[in-house]
User: Fold these one by one.
Assistant:
Number 1:
Amino acid sequence: MRLGLDIGGTKIDAVALDADDAVLARVRIPTGFGPAAVLGNAQSAAIQAADAAGVGPASFASLGIGIPGLVDATGGLVRHAVNLGVDELDLGPELASRLGLPVFVENDVNAASLGAYHLLGLDTSAAYLNLGTGLAAGFVLGGELWRGARGTAGEIGHIPVDPAGEICACGQRGCLETVASGGWLARKWGSAAPFPVLDVFDRADDGDARAIALRDELVGGAAAAVRILVLTVDVDVVVIGGGLSNLGARLLDRVATALDDQARDSQFLASLELSSRVRLVPLDQPIAAIGAALAGRPAGESIRI
């Protein structure tokens, strides 16, 4: 059995998986802010998930964690998780000492990549495209995460696509994230609606010209991200996840249509059959927490599907 935590900006989603990688129990608690709060609440979430499964933490083979920021997966160190108030935290070693079991720490998008791969029953190669406040991707090849030479594989949100675009938080100009993310759309829309992206899609459905233009620009950017992922790694499947995936078919169908429209003018793109390679992540599932738990598997042990 394995434990998994998805540590987000406001909540920690914790799951306990049985020996067949099915969810035994799930709990959610607030994340807190700052290293001490994040560490203490992560420990509490793991214990509560174990209790909900009817056993103690010592009954589990490992604890996996998905967390934003720069993650050293080898040493369990987390740096620059700014939304959590964490500049540097030895999360893996600290929790391993407190709980008495092996702890594995992954970037949250990588963890979600493994979770999506498992829940969709995939068995070859996949890219997980996280469309949320920002934009990033993760790769799973043959059931294993592919992080790249320095752990930055999938940071496609920082590929410049518009030389005249706005300055990105990374310091470059016109990055893909500045034209195809929920954060970008919210800034452009400027509405006080609690869910700006949903507001844009709803207004577009009602015929609002400005909303239609912004929606189509977002969809075009998401299609460009899919194209980049296939052209660079040639994965079998691109799974769209992140907060924007809650739009469901309203997003997926438009992205597929945009890919088909682009393919009409290019025999090369048409040969890639891009629209047929795009899937939507299963909704209402603890994707990243499940993936974090699976990250604790021994190297070479296959994900059960």
Number 2:
Amino acid sequence: MAAERLAADVVVVGAGPVGLMLAGELAHAGVDVVLLEKRHASNQESRASTLHARTMEIFDSRELLPDFGTPPDEPRGHFGGVPLDLTLPSTHPGQWKVQQTKTEAVLEEWALSLGADLKCKHELVAVGEVGDGVEAEAVGQDGVLRLRCRYLVACDGENSTVRRLLGADFPGQDAGRELLRADVSGIDVPNRRFERLEQGLAIAARRPDGVTRVMVHEFGSTARERTDEARFDEIVTVWKRVTGEDISGGTPLWVNAFGDASRQLTHYRHGRILFAGDAAHRQMPIGGQALNLGLQDAFNLGWKLALRLAGKAGDELLDTYHTERHAVGRRVLANIRAQAHMLLGDRTVEPLRTVLGELIALEDVRARLAGMISGLDVRYDVGGPAHPLLGARMPHTALHVGRRRLHPARLLRSGGGVLLDLRGGDAAEPPAGWTDRVSTTAVLPEDPGALHGADRVLLRPDGHVAWVGEGSGEEGLHAALRRWFGPPGRR
């Protein structure tokens, strides 16, 4: 059978949440994108079920929130099992409970509606740079698919095929301990929120549909080398030893084990091949951070890759994807390692947990940890004179545009940059040479104090502040426009 050939601007390998998010971002910008997925059908396993405030803001900037309905909001999260109020200034404070199957369904519908092409039942077997592009080969039930693209992005999970085929350096540590988990119907056990018993850690949460997610770790046990998923009878045995309860009469809908491995790619960019999500970093999925970290990787990369493909910006912009997200990932992996020690450690970690519980009662400590987990405190090095806003996301404050009242995410829906004139009145002239990439809007902030004296701010397409103007001067504006949006176009 002759091989099928396909060309695209970008091939995204992996149609999980991260790959779908990236494909949607690229298609939103007019990029021709193909999603390559080895599964035969949509994923029915809700491994992750938590969306944090920053991710919800991102979804708002793409008008996706209505598709999620009204998920429950839980202000209380945790740090290593110690209760932590995650409430911070945001349109969506706290954490939102959304099954991964729902997140994938929303993102898939969005990406496909914008023109992304999804190729299921195709497993990647070869990939590499060839000349000024990337060539890949995938095997499906109908034969071989050969793809040619300008860039390829690996979003294919912690056991990334792309990473293996490239032999990319992925330093870190393997799992030493693990949690067993399962979604089980037909059992009646008490809800448990990180209950530390004499023999181990037990967690149980009953969903509205009657299914209970159980997770268990026996103190002193070590992670096994697994070639297949954990078995339900294994969980039944450990659950009985830790809690004294028998759940063997339940029906397992999904069973797996996850460990405290911690690894991160040395480089998120390998020429024309890039990595995002768990393909770039492997961590214990504590508190939903793994999923949210990956979605935010995709949001950072999407607009940069789109500008590069359009010829508006050079490689230096694409390089900032690695610089920015590698630093964020390194910080998240560090806090997850600390939490894993507190969660899975035996009784000897109790003094540490007690001290942390006392510290979290201090507002500055609580806010610091909540910002770290929610992603709201991410600040990139964007250059320029020091200012409290630079590099951070646009602060949470309502903005008045004429008679309308809105929040910053609403201004980013076009996918381009925005120069905000915070003095109200008529907007300043759009920056000549960048009007195809940056719009200008006059607004009046409801809380001027949140903007630390800024008169104007330049927002990147991801909502992070790239330049701050005070008074009438425009010093540094053109440099910021060049850095984040490429050189000006011809007049």
